C-alpha cells in the first residue's frame, strides 16, 4: 500500500459541520466521536474551530468543545484551529487555555487566528476588535506574556509547562510567526509562495514548524460535492448552509457551478493512490512538517472510512503526551 512522506505528522481539524434535517447537537456529538476514532487511528492532534451564527457550523466556543474532546480521549493532543483573537480578550483566552492545560497536562495546543465574524451583525454582536496587522501582533504578544508568566497580571491557574501556540497565517501572519518563533498553520494560495515559506523558516530558525492545512477525502470523488456546494452557496447567498446529500443535478446558477468547480479543484479526493500522489507533491512543494486535514461530507460513515484510510497512508503513530509539538 502507498505511504506518504515518512516523518510528517498527521492531524485533523473538525469544524462540527451540521447536516440538513439534524439538530446542531448532532454535529457536536459527531465531533467528539470523530476525535475518539482519530486517537485510535494514531492522529497526532485533533483541533476544533470557531465560527459564530453560521448555520452550517455548530462550533462557536473552541475551549468548551476542546474540554469535551479532551475528556473523551486519553492521548491525542487537543487544540483550536483557531481561536479568533479579535473576538476575545487575551487574558480570558490565557485563562481558558491554562485551565485546559491544568486538567489535561501535555495535551493542549492553542491555534490563533484573526478572522472577523462572517457578517457585520455578527461582528457587532461579538464586539470584535481591530483585526489589522498591528492589533493582531499586540494581541498575540499580550497573550504570550500571560501564558509565560510575564504579563502585567498573572493568569490563573499558573501553567506548569508551556502550551504550544500556533498562528493561522497568510503572508503577514507568516512574518509575525517567524519573528515570534511560533509554529504556523498555512493553507490556500500561500502554499505556492515558496519565498514566503522559506522566509518564515529563516526568521523562526530552530523554532520553525510548518503545518499545512488541506481538504482531503479518501474515497469516491463525489464525497467532496456536499462541501463544495455549501461553499458555493455561501459565496452567492451570504449564508453557509448545513451539508446536504450530493446531487450533481441540483439547480444552480452559472456562478455557483463555477464556484463548485473551484472548490473541487482545491480538494484532494480519490482513491488511496491518487491521494498519496497529491499529498506527496504537497509535502515536497512546501516542506511541511505536519498535515492538518480539514474534510467534511454528508455521509458520516464514508468520512470515518476516509479518516482511517488517510491515517494508514501516512503511517500515523500514536500521539505522545507531553510532546511540545
Measured by DSSP, the beta-strand proportion falls in 5-15%
CATH class: Alpha Beta
Mean pLDDT figure: 92
**Number of DSSP strand runs:** 10
Q: In the CATH scheme, what's the topology name?
A: TIM Barrel
CATH-scheme architecture: Alpha-Beta Barrel
As residue ranges, the low-confidence spans are 317-324
Count of distinct structural domains: 1
Number of helical segments with 4 or more residues: 11
Shape: globular
Radius of gyration: 19 Å
Biggest sheet character: 10 strands, parallel
User: What is the H/E string?
Assistant: EHEHEEHEHHEHEHEHHEHEH
Could you state the CATH homologous superfamily? Luciferase-like domain
Helix-strand makeup class: alpha/beta
Overall description:
It is a single chain. With 325 residues, this protein is an alpha/beta fold. The protein has one domain (9-215, 271-314): TIM Barrel. It has 11 helices and 10 strands. The chain has helices at residues 24-41, 62-72, 90-103, 120-126, 133-148, 171-180, 194-204, 225-237, 254-265, 272-286, 300-314, and strands spanning 9-14, 45-48, 77-80, 83-84, 110-113, 165-168, 184-186, 210-218, 267-270, 290-294. Strands 1, 2, 3, 4, 5, 6, 7, 8, 9 and 10 form a 10-stranded parallel sheet that branches. α1 (24-41) links the parallel β1 (9-14) and β2. α6 runs parallel beside α7 (194-204) and α8 (225-237) packs across α9 (254-265). The longest helix is centred in the N-terminal third of the chain and has 18 residues, at 24-41. The two termini are 28 Å apart. The model is unreliable at 317-324 (pLDDT under 50).
Amino acid at each position: 500500500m502507498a505511504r506518504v512522506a515518512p516523518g510528517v505528522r498527521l492531524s485533523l481539524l473538525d469544524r462540527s459541520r451540521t447536516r440538513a434535517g439534524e439538530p446542531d447537537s448532532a454535529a457536536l456529538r459527531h465531533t467528539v466521536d470523530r476525535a475518539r476514532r482519530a486517537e485510535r487511528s494514531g492522529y497526532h492532534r485533533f483541533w476544533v474551530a470557531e465560527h459564530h451564527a453560521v448555520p452550517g457550523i455548530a462550533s462557536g466556543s473552541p475551549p468548551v468543545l476542546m474540554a469535551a474532546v479532551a475528556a473523551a480521549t486519553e492521548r491525542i493532543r487537543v487544540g483550536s484551529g483557531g481561536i479568533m483573537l479579535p473576538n476575545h480578550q487575551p487574558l480570558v483566552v490565557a485563562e481558558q487555555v491554562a485551565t485546559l492545560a491544568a486538567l489535561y497536562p501535555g495535551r493542549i495546543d492553542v491555534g490563533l487566528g484573526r478572522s472577523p465574524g462572517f457578517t457585520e451583525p455578527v461582528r457587532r454582536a461579538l464586539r470584535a476588535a481591530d483585526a489589522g496587522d498591528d492589533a493582531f501582533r499586540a494581541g498575540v504578544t499580550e497573550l504570550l506574556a500571560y501564558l509565560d508568566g510575564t504579563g502585567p497580571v498573572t493568569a490563573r491557574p499558573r501553567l506548569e509547562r508551556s502550551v504550544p501556540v500556533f498562528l493561522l497565517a497568510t503572508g503577514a501572519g507568516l512574518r509575525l510567526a517567524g519573528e515570534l518563533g511560533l509554529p504556523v498553520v498555512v493553507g490556500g494560495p500561500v502554499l505556492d509562495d515558496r519565498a514566503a515559506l522559506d522566509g518564515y523558516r529563516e526568521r523562526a530558525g530552530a523554532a520553525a514548524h510548518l503545518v499545512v492545512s488541506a481538504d482531503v477525502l479518501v474515497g469516491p470523488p463525489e464525497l467532496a460535492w456536499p462541501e463544495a456546494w455549501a461553499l458555493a452557496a455561501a459565496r452567492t447567498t451570504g449564508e453557509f448552509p448545513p451539508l446536504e446529500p450530493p446531487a450533481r443535478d441540483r439547480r444552480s446558477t452559472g456562478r455557483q457551478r463555477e464556484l463548485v468547480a473551484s472548490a473541487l479543484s482545491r480538494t484532494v479526493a480519490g482513491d488511496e493512490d491518487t491521494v498519496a500522489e497529491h499529498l506527496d507533491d504537497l509535502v515536497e512543494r512546501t516542506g511541511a512538517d505536519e498535515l492538518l486535514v480539514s474534510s467534511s461530507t454528508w455521509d458520516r460513515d464514508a468520512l470515518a472510512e476516509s479518516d482511517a484510510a488517510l491515517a494508514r497512508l501516512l503511517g500515523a503513530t500514536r500521539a505522545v503526551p507531553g510532546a511540545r509539538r
